[in-house]
Amino acid sequence: MNSSIQSRRCFPGLTGIVVLCALLAAVPARAQDTDKLTLHQAVTLALQNSRDVKLAQVQYNVALGEVGVDRAAFRPNLYTGSGIAYTHGFPSLPGGQAPSVFQLDYTQALFDPELKGLQHAAEDRAKNQKLELDRTRDDVIVRTATAYLDLSKVHHSLELMRGEQASGAKILEAIRARLAANQELPIEVTRTQLMLARIAERVVKLEDREASLDAQIRDLTGIPDSQSLEVEPADASFSAELATVQSEGEIESLAIQNDRSVAEAENERAAREHLLKGARWSYFPTVNVVGQYSILSKFNNYDEFYTHFERNNVNVGVQVTIPIFAAKTSANVSLARSQLSEAELLLGNKRQQVRFDVQQKARSVRELDASREVARLDLQLAQETLQLDQAKFDQNRTTLQDIEQARLDENDKWVAFLDADFARQQAQLTLLQATGQLAKVFQ
User: Fold this and answer.
1) pTM of the complete model
2) CATH homologous superfamily of domain 3-75+112-284+323-441?
3) pLDDT tens-digit map of 183-222
4) How are strands ordered across the β-sheet holding 312-321?
5) How far is CA 114 from CA 109, 318, 333, 409, in A?
């Protein structure tokens, strides 16, 4: 690592992603002529191409269609048909309807509490499907952002590991020279070769991880394999949003207000309230508007059973059904009441669970922030140690092997810092999702 890179490597007090932006900016560009994919662009493409989001949208449309079906009973319904039937004796069809050559029927429910309760319950449950769509979108955002940031970290870690390979090769060369001069033991050569083999192993694992993340981002965003993929650090607005510090009370309040599982439980409770209300009002009469126009045929022997035969018939009126004794109604009321009690208990449990979960996520962010600070200071100490060793080397007070070993130590601290910073970013993304603030970052 040259001194110009070293001078820009540590920025105490900045947020994790801001530091990562500076770190990756210091790495030489791999392809200057390649357009880089920004984090916001990756998330936008992922939301546009996500099969999970499309499926959730279709499921939401299905829920809205079910609401429309329940609502249709309270809107005009007009049916027509034609047919012919042979009758011997009293002219009648199954169900008691008179056979007709042409018939036009009209029905519309005016007052039916049970049907209305089912309609409102379906509307509340359709809201849950909308929440599921939003949750799916957030999951896609988190997966895309995590893979993107991980790929950025892996790129930088690979740069550091390849630098370690170069430093290790110099150390091995120096040890072999000392061995040839009988100033070193053969075991030191083996020890250095083992160190280089371990570095090579880490490089192979990082390259495999890089290929896996590249494929994952392409699958999420729909970018074809024929198109180059180059990522860059997160932008300033994303970094600022992740760096937002809120009190524990504010975090809990945001989580309760925005948690979709709580909102789903509230909608389910509202749905069951509508079902209970509809069941209770089912003790009252139902009112429907009915109408019928029919054309009858003479060959069905109507004139033998009726004193006056009318070929064209019109019937319009209101049908009122009065329940006198309906055992099913009381059973429905009892069932709906118990289901409502169940929904209220589930809602209370869900709120408490969300409160505990968001507290744990907030604690995790604080712990990882502390771990990142330790890794940053550890890196800073390694950098300062390297600077001292470099000064000693310039004054011929230390060997090349010592200074290259110091560079290896510094690179290891860099990798540890990048891992700690990425872990905190993941925790911050999870906390933003839990508090309902994630979508605001990518507006």
Assistant:
1) 0.72
2) Outer membrane efflux proteins (OEP) (1.20.1600.10)
3) 878 888 888 889 889 889 989 999 999 999 999 999 998 8
4) 77-82, 102-111, 286-295, 312-321
5) 11, 18, 11, 74
